[in-house]
Amino acid sequence: EVQLQASGGGSVQPGGSLRLSCVASGFIFGSAGMAWVRKVPGERPEWVSGIVSDSSLIDYADSVKGRFTISRDNARNMLYLQMNNLQLEDTAVYYCTKALAYWGQGTLVTVSS
Fold first, then answer.
1. Is the pLDDT of residue 87 over 90?
2. Whole-angstrom Cα distance, residue 65 to residue 74?
3. What b/e sequence results for 69-107 when a residue is b if at least 16 CB atoms lie within 10 Å of its CB, and e otherwise?
């Protein structure tokens, strides 16, 4: 059974930083493309960033490019999202996904002044 558990969310002021983590189990993590997706209640999910299995290809949504960094540790079955210079519009529940097909429990990020 695929299990994905995100953590690291919290409340920060604009300009602050957070690092999200996701622990994966139930599949061969090192062979899977992974992604972060965020969702605001009442809105459609927004793809944030993706990374292929060996980290050789990474991409970001334009809205976070230059501020967020995705990474992974295949030895530890971990996915990360370093978020810097957070803005009000980054407020959302963040989910790690296995190739956008499996979603774990999300973690809430709130950016407010």
1. yes
2. 23
3. ebebebeebbbbbebeebeeebbbbbbbbbeeebbbebb
Question: Would you give the DSSP letter of residue 15?
Answer: T
Three-state SS annotation for 90-101: HCEEEEEEECCC
- Mean pLDDT for 83-96 is 98
Give tens-digit pLDDT for 48-59.
999 999 999 999
Residue 100 near residue 37 (C-beta atoms within 8 A): yes
Phi/psi zone of residue 13: left (φ > 0), alpha (ψ -120 to 50 degrees), beta?
beta
Which amino acid is residue 72, in one-letter code?
R
| Angstrom distance (rounded) from CA 78 to CA 49 | 15
Which residues have a Cβ under 8 Å from the Cβ of 55 and sit 6 or more positions away? 71, 72
